[in-house]
Amino acid sequence: MKDVPPVTVRPRFHLAFPVHDLAAARAFYGEMLGCPEGRSSPEWVDFDLFGHQIVAHLAPGQCGDDDTNPVDGHDVPVRHFGLILEWEAWHALADRFRAADQRFIIEPCIRFQGQVGEQATMFLLDPSGNALEFKAFRDEAMIFAR
């Protein structure tokens, strides 16, 4: 990657994903996660996920994925997306999910405890079966540490 200028700010990501029901997506992303809604049509809805653009597209036959890989003693869904939050924000979100009786694929926990890359993590499914991971590092220098 010759002559590529260094990134001075974190770019925002855009992710489109399938859902089986837009009302359920609005309830989960809009109400549960608190994501403001942007543009929409009868087939899709834009959400602001902590400054990133995610788009729920109505595609009932393409939802969910059963493939997993083992990571630190858990079966992690291969297809997933999520955010790296600040440590306190991660705990607040975990508390919000618990208060709402959200079902987790992987309960909030500390992964790689005492090792390089130690992180808080939790996995859950949205109403269409899309897997989401929310994680946090006490030290952001550990995000890409080996």
UniProtKB/TrEMBL annotation:
Every VOC domain range: 11-137
Source organism per UniProt: Niveispirillum lacus
Protein name: Glyoxalase
InterPro entries: Glyas_Bleomycin-R_OHBP_Dase, Glyas_Fos-R_dOase_dom, VOC_core
Pfam families cross-referenced by the UniProt entry: Glyoxalase (PF00903)
